[in-house]
Amino acid sequence: MSRTKGNLAEDSACGFLTDNGFLIVERNFYSRFGEIDIIATKDEVLHFIEVKSGLDYESAIQNITHSKLNKFIKTLNVYMKKNSLDVDFMIDAVIVSPKKIWHVENITL
């Protein structure tokens, strides 16, 4: 996916999350392990969010692999340590298709 297409999907995801009561804390946090697309809060829980886009839910969600999730968790740990945080958190995905946006909370493999 091109960076432009990725940015459009992330913009759509941020709008969707904001409309659903989330406060966007940060976008595109990088570590040497990888990137977290969106960091947001809602109800005193910190959400680390991976955004994927595709023609449909299935084609997009399949791009969250075991390897990607491991890198994501390492990056999440860097963020928590860097900001000296000890808070409740979860790992979520936002799937963006041309017709619908899905928010999948607490993803695991």
Concise account of the structure shown:
By secondary structure, the protein is an alpha+beta fold. Helix content is 36%, strand content 34%. The chain has one domain (3-104): Trna Endonuclease, Chain: A, domain 1 (3-Layer(aba) Sandwich), CATH 3.40.1350.10.
Q: Within the CATH hierarchy, at the fold level, what is the topology?
A: Trna Endonuclease, Chain: A, domain 1
- Identify the CATH architecture: 3-Layer(aba) Sandwich
Mean pLDDT: 94
Unreliable parts:
none
Strand order of the biggest β-sheet: 1-2-3-4-5
CATH structural class:
Alpha Beta
SS field, number of helical segments:
3
Textual characterization of the structure:
The protein is of the alpha+beta class. It has one domain (3-104): Trna Endonuclease, Chain: A, domain 1, CATH 3.40.1350.10. The chain contains three helices and five strands; from the N terminus they run αβββααββ. The two termini are 23 Å apart.
